């Protein structure tokens, strides 16, 4: 249509670019990168077709900010795939539910509450160190299972105030991973999108089983939280009223308490929010931590700078991280941000275009879906000639050589529906990494690593690390 962006080359009659779905998740990642580069080189906007369905792709930060603030709906086919697993919590909620729930949940991510999580993050870091110690002498290992488990437990301990047993978290993580793989396999075999055919496959039974385990875990967390609150209420009732007032005043409400006490959510909505928060908070943060270990482990000069900053801030000690340390860990923060820029864990987000939007060079028409290629934005020439290089220093150089557009860093997305857990994630990653890099030299080589696109990107081979204990 007039004014619309150009079509991605390679469209075939009837199926459009649908043949791009016939591959594995490593191939998807290659394809997605190719599309993003084509978009970057051809005016920052294009569209591709899956059958007759049109998907726009954008790589210009200003265009993306505009669209993300005008359109907040995520009502897409891809959304439907993920919703079966995540439920319709905040991440994939329809717009009226999202508006109501986001307002309700926001206060549980304020700075005062996050500061209260610091002791938990320190303890979790120490638990992770214990697990890593068991690998110290073995040469190479995959840190993913350890990191996944610690982060999942941290999310439950902080946002829900509940302890998830190790066996339950292992069961959850296995089922979740399997469910995502099954979901993607089903989506790509487009004939399985017909319920009649899908219901006849083994995949349906396997998938239902995985989703059941994932949902049982959120139910268990909710059940534990309710029991804990009941016990606390009983304790409060048994002491005198002055103490009751003190306890109430001092307790900043965590995510689960806000939801439980609001009385505006149905039981089903409550379960979806808990489930969504566990997944949105844990899979993301643990994947970024693994990428950070791999990248920093591959660049000894970066790691030594982190180590000397840690030695200065902690005066060579192994003590816990305190609130005032966090702002002093500038280089570590730069290395985390550069990890998020370089391997943008969520390489795209999707919006449903529900009204016509005029962009710099084209117009988006309602009724279509739009991919914001966050990967493309992070490879935009505005980052400079060294855009393809891992350089934490770019975040600290003075005069600044960062892009003039403050939204050029999009790892947590932008606009009204951006990541609610950004500050939480940065805090937990800083604390965990500051424990690891004080005690260990991490050795890795990301140059031969293979990455797959499984909704988010994840390393799938060549991602082993080894550890050398430092003399403290
Ligand atoms: C490094 C870690 C993380 C990254 C890179 C990340 C990234 C993202 C991205 C790209 C989105 C999509 C936004 C959109 O559709 O525009 C998102 C949404 C979301 N994230 Fe995160 N996230 C991280 C950690 C967390 C944590 C720790 C939590 C909670 C504890 C969290 C909770 C959420 C929620 C609830 C949403 C949905 C927000 C909404 O629709 O209103 N995330 N995140």
Automatic annotation (TrEMBL):
It comes from the Eukaryota. Keywords: Endoplasmic reticulum, Heme, Iron, Membrane, Metal-binding, Microsome, Monooxygenase, Oxidoreductase, Signal. PROSITE patterns: CYTOCHROME_P450 (PS00086). The keyword Metal-binding applies. It holds the Pfam family p450. Gene3D superfamilies: Cytochrome P450 (1.10.630.10). Its cofactor is heme. It is a peripheral membrane protein. It is found in: Endoplasmic reticulum membrane; Microsome membrane. May be involved in the metabolism of insect hormones and in the breakdown of synthetic insecticides. Belongs to the cytochrome P450 family. This is Cytochrome P450 4C1 isoform X1. It comes from Bicyclus anynana (Squinting bush brown butterfly).
């Amino acid at each position: 249509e007039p004014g619309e962006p150009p079509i991605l080359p390679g469209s075939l009659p009837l199926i459009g670019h649908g043949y791009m779905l016939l591959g594995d998740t490593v191939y998807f990642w290659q394809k997605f990168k190719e599309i993003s580069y084509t978009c970057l080189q051809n005016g920052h906007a294009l569209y591709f077709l899956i059958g007759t369905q049109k998907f726009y792709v954008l790589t210009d930060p200003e265009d993306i900010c505009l669209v993300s603030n005008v359109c907040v709906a995520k009502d897409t086919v891809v959304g439907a795939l993920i919703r079966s697993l995540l439920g319709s919590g905040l991440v994939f909620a329809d717009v009226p539910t999202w508006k109501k729930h986001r307002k309700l949940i926001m206060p549980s991510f304020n700075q005062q509450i996050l500061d209260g999580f610091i002791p938990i993050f320190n303890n979790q870091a120490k638990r992770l160190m214990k697990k890593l110690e068991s690998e110290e002498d073995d040469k190479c290992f995959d840190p993913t299972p350890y990191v996944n488990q610690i982060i999942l437990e941290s999310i439950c301990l902080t946002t829900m105030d509940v302890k998830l047993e190790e066996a339950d978290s292992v069961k959850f993580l296995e089922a979740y991973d399997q469910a995502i793989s099954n979901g993607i396999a089903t989506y790509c075999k487009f004939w399985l999108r017909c319920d009649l055919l899908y219901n006849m496959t083994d995949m349906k039974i396997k998938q239902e089983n995985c989703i059941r385990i994932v949902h049982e875990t959120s139910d268990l967390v909710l059940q534990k939280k309710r029991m804990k609150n009941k016990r606390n209420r009983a304790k409060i009732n048994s002491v005198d009223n002055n103490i009751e007032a003190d306890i109430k005043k001092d307790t900043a409400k965590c995510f689960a308490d806000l939801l439980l006490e609001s009385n505006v959510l149905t039981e089903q909505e409550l379960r979806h929010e808990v489930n969504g928060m566990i997944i949105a908070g844990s899979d993301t943060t643990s994947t970024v931590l693994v990428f950070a270990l791999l990248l920093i482990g591959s660049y000894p000069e970066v790691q030594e700078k982190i180590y000397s900053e840690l030695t200065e801030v902690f005066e060579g000690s192994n003590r816990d991280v305190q609130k005032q340390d966090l702002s002093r860990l500038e280089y570590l923060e730069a290395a985390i941000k550069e990890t998020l820029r370089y391997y943008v864990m969520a390489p795209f987000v999707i919006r449903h275009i529900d009204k016509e939007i005029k962009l710099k060079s084209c117009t988006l028409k309602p009724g279509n879906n739009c991919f914001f290629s966050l990967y493309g934005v992070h490879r935009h020439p505005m980052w400079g000639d060294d855009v393809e290089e891992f350089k934490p220093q770019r975040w600290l150089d003075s005069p600044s050589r960062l892009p003039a557009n403050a939204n050029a860093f999009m790892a947590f997305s932008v606009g009204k529906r951006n990541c609610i857990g950004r500050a939480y994630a940065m805090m937990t990653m800083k604390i965990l990494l500051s424990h690891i890099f004080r005690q260990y030299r991490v050795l890795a080589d990301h140059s031969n690593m293979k990455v797959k696109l499984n909704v988010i990107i994840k390393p799938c081979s060549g991602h082993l690390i080894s550890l050398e204990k430092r003399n403290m």
